[in-house]
Amino acid sequence: MRRWGMVLGAMAGVMLLAGTPVQAGAAQKKADSSTAKQSAADGGGGDVAPDAAPPDSGLHLPPGVASHLSKLMPEEDGCYEPFRTAAGKSRRCEPQCIPYLRCRSGIDSCRIGYQNGPLTWFSCEEQRGNTELVPQPGSVLILAGNARRKMSTGHGLYVETVEEVAPFLYRLILSHTNYDRQCSLETNVEARFDQRAMTIDFVTGAWHTWGQSLAVAGFIRGGGE
Asked: Collapsing DSSP states into helix, strand and coil, what is residue 83?
């Protein structure tokens, strides 16, 4: 009897251990689904960058890390947590630029659906009188479409700091995600914005080799503190 009790106890232990991953996997799947729905409501499509791997290639790095070109986000900033989620038959990485920019800027308006892109977001905010041509810390810079670089729906970047170095010429420090189609994060990117020409030149970061004289649509005013 004692031996049978030991055998039954061992079998129960194996069954318990076997059930744990299933429960954990189900919980993770539910959490990913919830996050995906929130991101879809934010709108995040169309902000892929050129000369990069397809959206479904590669693996994500741990939260807060992007690539050798990127830096860690400040500890107090919880806007960047990379993951992949299913969207129909394909998989997409998150956060794409719009959910990240909403989190950083506090802008909660113009939620126009899953297919919302940087330029459609800008157009909606422009109709609401929430755009400007002069950069301000906490605003969102929207790049115009660039078909040559496969960026037809534009791209958005968060404006960290602004310094006017000459009349109509500004030194900007920017942060953005999904600049590489893998939703990586890049911070402390230096750029020069020419207000009269409405163009920007990237001085540092992943785009500094080709990101010159890129057309700028304008800036969305920040909605946070």
From this structure: strand
For the ranges 4-8, 19-23, 51-55, 177-181, the lowest mean pLDDT is seen at 51-55
Residue at token pair 């693996």: 59
Look at residues 136, 181, 163, 187 and name the one whose alpha carbon lies nearest to residue 45. Answer: 181
C-alpha to C-alpha distance for 89 and 137, rounded to whole angstroms:
39
CA-to-CA separations, 41 to 117, 119, 147, 186, 223, in angstroms, rounded: 12, 17, 26, 24, 18
What is the C-alpha to C-alpha distance for residues 159 and 172, in angstroms, rounded to an integer?
7
Closest by CA position to 183, among listed 88, 35, 45, 29: 45
Is a pLDDT exceeding 60 seen at residue 200? yes
87 strand-pairing partners: 90
Q: What percent of the chain has pLDDT over 70?
A: 60
Q: Which amino acid is at 80?
A: Y
CA 99/CA 102 separation, integer angstroms: 5
Query: pTM for this one?
Result: 0.68
Helices and strands of the chain, counted as H and E runs: 3, 9
CB–CB of 141/156 below 8 Å? Answer: yes
Nearest Cα neighbor of 93 from 50, 68, 61 is 61
